């Protein structure tokens, strides 16, 4: 029988991933090393201390299951065969190249005037579509959505935003929404399914949908935070994107040149 010992403090009341051990499974410790990849998968800069207790427990359960499966896989002997060693060596080679390229990328600089020149030449590519800023709570049934709407409909302004976020963290089916309080940020028409976008568009700023919005994912309660019309992106808005484009181009040129130089110097014997 699997023996799992939970640390109540780290499971329910943990405020960070600095705790040494979160659980012990058949003598194996579940620590930050095992949990970190799962937390990272919820989105960038996720703070586990802000997650509801049920989500913390879910993360720990997933890590426990992964460790049990990993132990089973290791015990099967697959990690000792020739195929495993070949795959491992290939993975190491690919990782080595990727890390080397990342180090190269750190040294690549793009001049401000080059970014501006690219912007001036390609302004048509930087038209921003109409966008909506909203949050949502996703549930399985229409009845659940109606209950949430009834609980929230009398709140206004900051009180609505606060209670919406709390409700999303507690009840939304979407893991990321639980951590972010349901916030979706800015999105355009083609980034959302039509029923969702149309419902969000019809709302006024600071309103929630008074009817559940049905999509293939379930039933949504939507809070519209803001909206902006289609417009030409300013230089400051476009600058980060352009800088990244030019950096990638320079990196590609640098790597290609280095590869050609190495090839020219290499002693190659065809067999």
From TrEMBL:
Residues 1-23 form the signal peptide. It comes from Campylobacter hominis (strain ATCC BAA-381 / DSM 21671 / CCUG 45161 / LMG 19568 / NCTC 13146 / CH001A). This is peptidylprolyl isomerase. PANTHER family: FOLDASE PROTEIN PRSA, PEPTIDYLPROLYL ISOMERASE. Residues 129-226 form the PpiC domain. GO terms for molecular function: peptidyl-prolyl cis-trans isomerase activity. PROSITE patterns: PPIC_PPIASE_2. SUPFAM superfamilies: FKBP-like, Triger factor/SurA peptide-binding domain-like. It catalyses: [protein]-peptidylproline (omega=180) = [protein]-peptidylproline (omega=0). Keywords: Isomerase, Rotamase, Signal. The keyword Signal applies. Its EC number is 5.2.1.8. The lineage of its organism: Bacteria, Pseudomonadati, Campylobacterota, Epsilonproteobacteria, Campylobacterales.
């Amino acid at each position: 029988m699997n023996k799992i010992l939970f640390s109540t403090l780290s499971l329910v009341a943990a405020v960070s991933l600095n705790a040494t051990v979160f659980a012990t499974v058949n003598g194996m410790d579940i620590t930050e090393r095992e949990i970190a990849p799962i937390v990272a998968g919820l989105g960038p800069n996720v703070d586990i201390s802000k997650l509801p207790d049920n989500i913390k427990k879910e993360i720990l359960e997933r890590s426990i299951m992964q460790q049990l499966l990993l132990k089973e896989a290791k015990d099967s002997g697959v990690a000792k065969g020739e195929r495993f060693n070949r795959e491992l060596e290939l993975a190491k080679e690919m990782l080595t190249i990727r890390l080397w390229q990342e180090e190269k990328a750190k040294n690549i600089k793009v001049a401000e005037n080059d970014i501006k020149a690219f912007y001036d030449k390609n302004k048509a590519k930087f038209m921003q579509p109409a966008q909506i800023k909203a949050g949502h709570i996703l549930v399985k049934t229409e009845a659940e959505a109606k209950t949430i709407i009834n609980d929230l409909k009398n709140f206004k302004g900051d009180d609505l935003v606060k209670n919406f976020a709390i409700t999303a963290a507690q009840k939304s089916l979407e893991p990321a929404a639980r951590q972010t309080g349901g916030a979706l940020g800015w999105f355009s028409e083609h980034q959302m399914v039509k029923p969702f976008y149309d419902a969000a568009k019809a709302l006024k700023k600071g309103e929630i949908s008074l009817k559940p919005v049905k999509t293939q994912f379930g039933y949504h309660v939507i809070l519209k935070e803001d909206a902006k019309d289609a417009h030409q992106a300013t230089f400051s808005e476009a600058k980060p994107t352009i800088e990244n484009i030019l950096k990638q181009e320079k990196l590609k040129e640098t790597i290609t040149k280095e590869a050609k130089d190495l090839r020219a110097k290499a002693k190659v014997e065809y067999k």
